[in-house]
Amino acid sequence: MTENTGSKLDSFQKKKNKEEMQQQLISFALMIVFTILAFVVVITGMDKMIAIPILITLAVVQVGFQFYYFMHMKHEGHEMAAVMIYGGVWAALLTLAGLTVITWW
User: Fold this and answer.
1) Beta-carbon neighbour count of residue 69 at 10 Å?
2) Where are the transmembrane segments (predicted)?
3) How far apart are CA 43 and CA 22, in angstroms?
4) Exposure of 10 in the CB half-sphere (CA atoms within 13 A)
5) CA angle, 29 as apex, 39 and 34 as ends, to 5°?
6) What is the rounded distance in angstroms from the CA atom of residue 94 to the CA atom of residue 40?
7) Which residues does 42 contact at the CB level (< 8 Å), separation at least 6?
8) Alpha carbon distance 92, 100 (integer Å)
């Protein structure tokens, strides 16, 4: 009976690993596509008022993919790391907002 249970656990773990590998490959491919899109936007000489928001959006999406998939933030046990990263992002946004207000006020 224990052999049967071990076999089920092994097959479950293999299936889970396969699904996770597929998700990582898909996100890696999407990041490559976003990088190519960013190069295309720059190479085509698009107007800066359009190009900059597109590039910032692509960069933010890529950072999200990096955190969520490649730094394994979706797994349990990474709560403290997530709090620290999100706190750092919040501090950076506050700093940028403050500098923007000081510069253009």
Assistant:
1) 19
2) 25-44, 50-71, 83-104
3) 31
4) 6
5) 25
6) 31
7) 51, 55
8) 12
| pLDDT tens per residue, range 67-89 | 777 776 666 777 887 788 889 98
Q: How many Cα atoms occupy the beta-carbon half-sphere of 40 within 13 Å?
A: 8
Quickly count: other Cβ atoms within 10 Å of residue 79's Cβ.
9
Residues across the chain: 105
**Do 56 and 38 touch, CB atoms closer than 8 A?**
no
DSSP 74: T
Residues 38, 51: Cα–Cα separation, whole Å: 9
Contact 60, 92 (CB under 8 A): no
| Residue at 34: amino acid letter | F
- Residue indicated by tokens 């960013």: 38
Query: Residue 92, Cα to own-chain centre: how many angstroms?
Result: 17
